[in-house]
Design brief:
The protein is α+β, with helices and mostly antiparallel strands. It has two domains: about 1-85, Winged helix-like DNA-binding domain superfamily/Winged helix DNA-binding domain (Arc Repressor Mutant, subunit A); about 85-154, no CATH class. The chain has six helices and five strands. It has helices at about 10-25, 35-45, 45-60, 75-80, 95-105, 135-154, and strands at about 65, 70-75, 85-95, 110-120, 125-135. The strands form two sheets. The protein has a three-stranded antiparallel beta sheet with strand order 3-4-5. A two-stranded antiparallel ribbon has the order 1-2. It is globular, with a radius of gyration of 19 Å. It comes from Micromonospora fulviviridis.
């Protein structure tokens, strides 16, 4: 974290740093922000302060928060600022070996893929894909863990 902005609330300084990351592309459109606990550790701040910073970014339409899923950078805001045209899609896909290893799940687990295509005129500038376990896969993983724990205790 850079030198704090004296006379400015701590949450505002954190929001400003995250804003720089979003607007510079270090956190690309549609990207998932790190969890509150990771941000609290990075900025050496309480989770309440991190929540205030995220709320400030939400007010400025830089991020959107989905309950139980996390906070994502808002591709629409980023594209309006750059004068680009954006298309966002979401679909369910099956995890290949690489994605299964990353998510510590089995090959074929259901994932949610979010894709954002940014265009300038007729040219594609960027394509961003983000993945997360679907609630169905999370429930199956939880049930498998519970049955494994039960078998281990017996």
């Amino acid at each position: 974290m850079p030198t704090p902005h004296y006379g400015q609330p701590r949450y505002r300084a954190i929001a400003d740093e995250l804003r720089v990351r979003i607007e510079s592309g270090a956190l690309p459109p549609g990207a998932l922000l790190p969890p509150e606990s990771a941000l609290a550790s990075e900025f050496r701040a309480s989770r309440g302060t991190i929540r205030q910073a995220i709320a400030a970014l939400r007010e400025d339409e830089l991020v959107t928060t989905e309950h139980g899923r996390g906070t994502y950078t808002n591709a629409a805001h980023f594209d309006r600022k750059r004068g680009a045209n954006s298309e966002a899609t979401q679909r369910e896909v099956l995890a290949d070996a690489e994605l299964a290893a990353l998510f510590d799940t089995e090959v074929g687990a259901v994932l949610i893929e979010r894709q954002t295509v940014n265009r300038r005129g007729n040219s594609v500038e960027t394509v961003t894909r983000a993945y997360q376990l679907s609630p169905v896969s999370q429930a199956r993983a939880g049930a498998a863990q519970t049955s494994t724990e039960k078998a281990f205790r017996e």
